[in-house]
From TrEMBL:
It is an enzyme of class 1 (oxidoreductase). The keyword Ribonucleoprotein does not apply. This is Isocitrate dehydrogenase (NAD+). Keywords: Oxidoreductase. It comes from Tunturiibacter empetritectus. Belongs to the isocitrate and isopropylmalate dehydrogenases family.
Amino acid sequence: KTHRITLIPGDGIGPEVSGAVVKILEAAGAATGVAFDWHPYDAGANAFEKTGEYIPKVLYDSIEKNRVALKGPVTTPVGGGFASINVTLRKKFELFANFRPVKNLPGLKTKYPGLDLVIVRENMEDLYAGLEHEVVPGVVQALKIITEKGSTRIAKFAFDYARKHGRKKIHAIHKANIMKLSDGLFLRCCQTVAKEFPEIAYHEHIVDNTCMQLVMNPYQYDILLTENLYGDILSDLCSAFVGGLGLVPGANLGTECAIFEAVHGSAPDIAGKDLANPTALLQSAVLMLHHIDEPATAERVQAGLEQVYREGKTLTKDVGGTSGTKAFADAVVAAMEAP
Ligand code: NAI
Ligand code: MG
């Protein structure tokens, strides 16, 4: 079977990690009878240089048609310039759920062996939507919009996921002591949905305390259910438990389309040096393979990846190794093909 997939290589380390992932997926697909028809597009500054648009119409059309995209990180300018490509794509395709499993890879030694938690982040609302304006010179306003619809559907997503995968506990993360109306509405929606899932324990933690609790004992959490901005920040924090940003994958999910991408950004500090760890994007691709109903290919990739970490000989620098992005990718391909 052939799958048409929109590919956004992205900026910085994006082309390196997506190149590695495509190579590994091609090898896994060849062995399991699955072919990929990649449709690659630029987005952001590169796209603007070539087409005069930050997100070319052909890219929108491609995602609309293929319904599945694999995306590398895109650089977003600080303090001005164009709006975030990520935020724009998430809004455009109503990718309301951001699913981020934070799980230890067997074989990789970390401070928290066996940790396995999931961040379910609302993906379209909140301060993260970037709705800002200058009121008068010297005063700006940023709008935090939280809706019953958005909060209820992300809560429903988290509880449905928990039920389907036998997860036991959900913590809604908030600051409703201060943002009584907005985070208050979010919490009320979570509480209402929680009532439909009596078998899943429901708790509420304030976000600043959550940061402390996470660092003290991340094992106490199972699923973290968050608004958009808290989820963004907690994701990077949690990535450190399992080896850092080079590891943690993500899926932006809507009812029509899905975009799979790592938690990390374009990492300009290591770009173009063959230093980036493609594991996070590779694990995002594994989520994608399950999404397009190719579990055998997904399992082959995951097994190869875990084998390379167990052997520990060909790891990238961020996880204590000395190998480059390309050598790591070749090792995963070799591990998949070893008898
Ligand atoms: P970053 O995630 O790019 O990098 C943070 C740190 O983690 C850096 O030290 C980097 O070297 C390291 N790192 C990240 N990914 C790695 C990998 N795969 N392997 C090894 N080390 C890795 O965050 P930063 O520097 O704050 O953002 C850089 C740019 O990325 C910004 O323009 C930001 O807007 C953009 N960004 C884009 C995202 C996306 O497209 N989904 C997500 C997050 C940030
Ligand atoms: Mg982030």
